[in-house]
Fold:
Amino acid sequence: MAIRLKSAAEIEKMRVAGRLVATILRDLAAMCRPGTRTSEFEERSAALIRTAGAEPLFKNYPHYAGGKPYPATVCVSVNEEVVHGIPGDRAIREGDLVSFDVGVKLDGFCGDAAASVCVGQVDPRVKRLAEVTRQALEIAVRTIRSGIFWSSVAGRIETFVAEAGFSVVTDFVGHGIGAEMHEDPKLPNFVSRDLLRRDVLLQEGMTLAVEPMVNMGSHEVEHLADGWTVVTKDRQPSAHFEHTIAVAEGGGDVLTTLNGSRTL
Structure:
């Protein structure tokens, strides 16, 4: 692995990019009402990125298997859609669980975050799924610090989710982030033999996109025919939360907040 540590000045640039991402997520959440079409989320995201003079990280991102590039600035994934949902004509309905994932590059550095929104009156189990996933990310933030291995963080995420009766997605993981959206290291939200063989020692100056994806049922997922949208294999709901976090003196420094705060 080629992990690039960031200077204090570079981390502050990432904080500015992260603030823009947090602003976009806030606006999309406020729009997330019955009747809103997912294309409207894309319109708002694209406008905010353009006005800020930033670059969208997702739009035209190459397909892993040579298919069409991703066509939007924001991923909008509804209910059983885990990640990479493509905005379009679909109208949001009462009771939906909608996950937004946004990434930008500003002044040479990236920010990436995600959040799931419950629309109106949702099934209590769905609401708990979203809350457990959000709490799993908070556990990661509180656990991250220089001098520990990533497996310590991943183990706490996995155990918390399993004890709640849900499943961590194993096909997709978090990642390093900085001048590029995807940098080393890979950051699974579960502990495997492979992780233990290649564990990552956290160091001050690392910048990480930590993103637990949690399914109500099985951890298994599959792609839809569009080549991008990932859904749960059993078609039960999934939730997704993500922050860009710097490993700092004293713990995890969350860079994707509205006020630039060092904590959630």
About this structure: The first strand starts at residue 55 and ends at 56.
